[in-house]
Amino acid sequence: MFDDPRLNLARGALGAVQIVQDPTLPPRVLRLVNAEGNEFFAKQHSERDRYTRELHAYLAWGSHLIGHVPRVVGRQDRTCTLLLTAVPGVRVDTVEPGSPKEEQAHYEAGRVLGKLHQATSVPRTGAVGTELAQLLRDWIARADRAALISTVERDRLGHNADVLASTLMDSAVCHLDYQPRNWLLGDAFGLCDFEHMRRDARIRDFARLEFRRWQAVPNLRTAFFAGYGQPLNDTEQRLLESFGAIEAVTALVRGHDQDDVALSTHGRTVLARLA
Q1: Tens digit of pLDDT for each residue in 103-117?
Q2: CB-based contacts of 266, cutoff 8 Å, min separation 6
């Protein structure tokens, strides 16, 4: 731990710090407190492209979300390490299911994401759909090589790739892992984990909520879009269903590669829902 780049970065930027034990954090993230009692997070990426993407997200787009996202107070490019302020609040995935706080969190999540999308939106083009169709086809090929899908399932997934390729869609800066584990509910609504953030199809930012949460609890979808201020029309809802194909096949492949039964089961559940 003495030579830990995260601690070295924090001590250089903040002076003396103490580690706060937090079993909910992944191993690559440290929770720290300085002499004044202020909390910070030090995060070391194992993949340089994710470090670069997260750093760019905070520096380029954090201005659209002031008060809702951490600030970068230190970085070390050589070791892919970031030092971030802590946003106060409790993780929303620890909030009691069915409680008013959970519904409030979804409302706030919609409101804050709406701010980001509105500030960065670009009108409909075909380029985004073409890129996403190719992404889906690459995942289909991986699933096929691993014998994870039948011929019927492969054709069903391929149909959704064709739909994406032929659809004009709005783009915006998207979080792309927008779900309760990355939300913080406190005096202000906070967001974290920007390593996937990039410009993408705007509606794709709803996919993980649609296929991992809202199916079982539709009132949370209602609360979210009340905050977002722009409910999906029929065309957008059909497009969201096609993003379920990406959700399904990536879960199948990653579940197989990581021997994660829950993730594989989720992939099967979403795949069965696809038209």
Answers
A1: 999 999 999 999 999
A2: 211, 212, 251, 255
